[in-house]
Design goal:
Layout: H1 8-31, H2 45-52, H3 60-66, H4 68-74, H5 84-88, H6 92-96, H7 108-114, H8 137-140
Length: 151
Protein backbone atom coordinates (compact mmCIF):
# COMPACT_ATOMS: atom_id res chain seq x y z
CA UNK A 1 0.00 0.00 0.00
CA UNK A 2 1.29 3.34 -0.97
CA UNK A 3 0.86 6.26 1.28
CA UNK A 4 -0.36 9.55 -0.19
CA UNK A 5 2.40 12.10 0.00
CA UNK A 6 1.59 15.80 -0.49
CA UNK A 7 4.04 17.72 -2.67
CA UNK A 8 6.07 20.21 -0.59
CA UNK A 9 4.88 23.30 -2.53
CA UNK A 10 1.22 22.38 -1.85
CA UNK A 11 2.00 21.78 1.81
CA UNK A 12 3.60 25.25 2.05
CA UNK A 13 0.54 26.84 0.40
CA UNK A 14 -1.82 25.07 2.79
CA UNK A 15 0.27 26.17 5.80
CA UNK A 16 0.45 29.75 4.51
CA UNK A 17 -3.33 29.80 4.03
CA UNK A 18 -3.85 28.52 7.58
CA UNK A 19 -1.49 31.20 8.96
CA UNK A 20 -3.30 33.96 7.07
CA UNK A 21 -6.75 32.78 8.17
CA UNK A 22 -5.71 32.36 11.81
CA UNK A 23 -3.97 35.76 11.89
CA UNK A 24 -7.16 37.32 10.49
CA UNK A 25 -9.23 35.89 13.35
CA UNK A 26 -6.66 36.92 15.97
CA UNK A 27 -6.48 40.49 14.61
CA UNK A 28 -10.26 40.66 14.34
CA UNK A 29 -10.54 39.71 17.99
CA UNK A 30 -8.38 42.72 19.00
CA UNK A 31 -9.55 45.28 16.41
CA UNK A 32 -13.31 44.72 16.27
CA UNK A 33 -15.22 47.44 18.19
CA UNK A 34 -17.23 46.18 21.16
CA UNK A 35 -20.50 47.58 19.84
CA UNK A 36 -20.16 45.93 16.42
CA UNK A 37 -23.17 43.74 15.73
CA UNK A 38 -25.37 45.44 18.30
CA UNK A 39 -27.84 46.57 15.61
CA UNK A 40 -27.17 44.03 12.91
CA UNK A 41 -24.04 44.42 10.81
CA UNK A 42 -23.28 47.89 12.24
CA UNK A 43 -21.28 49.46 15.03
CA UNK A 44 -23.85 50.40 17.66
CA UNK A 45 -21.79 53.23 19.18
CA UNK A 46 -21.75 55.02 15.82
CA UNK A 47 -25.29 56.29 16.41
CA UNK A 48 -24.37 57.99 19.69
CA UNK A 49 -21.16 59.38 18.18
CA UNK A 50 -23.04 60.92 15.24
CA UNK A 51 -25.72 62.34 17.55
CA UNK A 52 -23.04 63.98 19.72
CA UNK A 53 -21.47 65.85 16.78
CA UNK A 54 -22.10 69.59 16.65
CA UNK A 55 -24.29 70.45 13.64
CA UNK A 56 -22.68 72.76 11.08
CA UNK A 57 -25.58 73.29 8.66
CA UNK A 58 -28.30 75.83 9.39
CA UNK A 59 -30.84 74.88 6.74
CA UNK A 60 -32.71 76.94 4.15
CA UNK A 61 -35.21 78.32 6.69
CA UNK A 62 -32.40 79.98 8.64
CA UNK A 63 -31.12 81.64 5.46
CA UNK A 64 -34.63 82.81 4.52
CA UNK A 65 -35.03 84.67 7.82
CA UNK A 66 -32.54 87.36 6.74
CA UNK A 67 -32.04 86.85 3.00
CA UNK A 68 -35.65 86.92 1.79
CA UNK A 69 -34.83 88.96 -1.33
CA UNK A 70 -32.27 86.38 -2.46
CA UNK A 71 -34.69 83.51 -1.77
CA UNK A 72 -37.43 85.28 -3.78
CA UNK A 73 -35.12 85.66 -6.79
CA UNK A 74 -33.83 82.11 -6.50
CA UNK A 75 -37.35 80.65 -6.16
CA UNK A 76 -38.16 81.84 -9.69
CA UNK A 77 -35.18 80.18 -11.37
CA UNK A 78 -33.35 76.89 -11.91
CA UNK A 79 -31.54 76.84 -8.57
CA UNK A 80 -34.74 76.98 -6.49
CA UNK A 81 -34.37 73.39 -5.28
CA UNK A 82 -30.72 73.78 -4.27
CA UNK A 83 -29.93 74.58 -0.65
CA UNK A 84 -27.97 77.77 0.00
CA UNK A 85 -25.33 75.76 1.84
CA UNK A 86 -24.65 73.62 -1.22
CA UNK A 87 -22.82 76.58 -2.74
CA UNK A 88 -22.01 78.82 0.23
CA UNK A 89 -20.89 76.11 2.63
CA UNK A 90 -22.01 75.31 6.20
CA UNK A 91 -23.72 78.36 7.73
CA UNK A 92 -24.87 77.46 11.24
CA UNK A 93 -22.31 79.79 12.85
CA UNK A 94 -23.38 82.60 10.48
CA UNK A 95 -27.06 82.01 11.25
CA UNK A 96 -26.39 82.27 14.98
CA UNK A 97 -24.13 85.33 14.60
CA UNK A 98 -24.36 87.37 11.36
CA UNK A 99 -20.90 88.84 11.99
CA UNK A 100 -19.40 85.41 11.30
CA UNK A 101 -18.92 85.15 7.55
CA UNK A 102 -19.80 82.05 5.57
CA UNK A 103 -17.27 80.35 3.37
CA UNK A 104 -16.48 82.50 0.35
CA UNK A 105 -18.31 81.37 -2.77
CA UNK A 106 -15.79 79.63 -4.97
CA UNK A 107 -16.49 79.54 -8.68
CA UNK A 108 -15.26 75.96 -8.81
CA UNK A 109 -18.41 75.02 -6.89
CA UNK A 110 -20.40 75.62 -10.08
CA UNK A 111 -18.43 72.83 -11.72
CA UNK A 112 -19.43 70.33 -9.02
CA UNK A 113 -22.88 70.27 -10.59
CA UNK A 114 -22.32 71.61 -14.09
CA UNK A 115 -19.13 69.89 -15.28
CA UNK A 116 -20.03 67.52 -18.07
CA UNK A 117 -20.27 63.92 -16.92
CA UNK A 118 -22.04 61.06 -18.69
CA UNK A 119 -23.83 59.97 -15.50
CA UNK A 120 -25.68 63.27 -15.13
CA UNK A 121 -29.17 63.66 -16.55
CA UNK A 122 -29.34 65.21 -19.99
CA UNK A 123 -31.74 67.87 -18.70
CA UNK A 124 -29.11 69.28 -16.33
CA UNK A 125 -27.07 72.05 -17.92
CA UNK A 126 -23.50 70.83 -18.33
CA UNK A 127 -20.35 72.38 -19.71
CA UNK A 128 -16.93 71.20 -20.71
CA UNK A 129 -14.89 73.42 -18.41
CA UNK A 130 -11.87 73.69 -20.68
CA UNK A 131 -14.06 74.89 -23.57
CA UNK A 132 -16.26 77.23 -21.53
CA UNK A 133 -14.19 80.03 -20.03
CA UNK A 134 -13.06 77.97 -17.07
CA UNK A 135 -13.28 79.40 -13.57
CA UNK A 136 -14.97 82.68 -14.44
CA UNK A 137 -18.64 81.71 -14.02
CA UNK A 138 -19.62 84.89 -12.18
CA UNK A 139 -18.41 87.15 -14.98
CA UNK A 140 -21.30 85.92 -17.17
CA UNK A 141 -23.86 84.37 -14.78
CA UNK A 142 -25.60 85.38 -11.55
CA UNK A 143 -25.66 82.31 -9.29
CA UNK A 144 -29.20 82.88 -8.01
CA UNK A 145 -30.48 83.57 -11.55
CA UNK A 146 -28.04 81.88 -13.98
CA UNK A 147 -29.79 83.14 -17.13
CA UNK A 148 -29.16 86.75 -16.15
CA UNK A 149 -25.81 88.49 -16.61
CA UNK A 150 -24.26 90.60 -13.88
CA UNK A 151 -24.55 94.37 -14.23
Amino acid sequence: MSRFRMPPQILRLVLLTLVIISSYFVLRMFLKPESFGEFGHYRGAALAERAALEPVFAGAKACAECHTEVIEVQDKHEHRRISCESCHGPARAHAQNPDVKTTAFAETRCLRCHAQEPARPITQKQIVATDHYEGKCLECHLPHNPKESPP
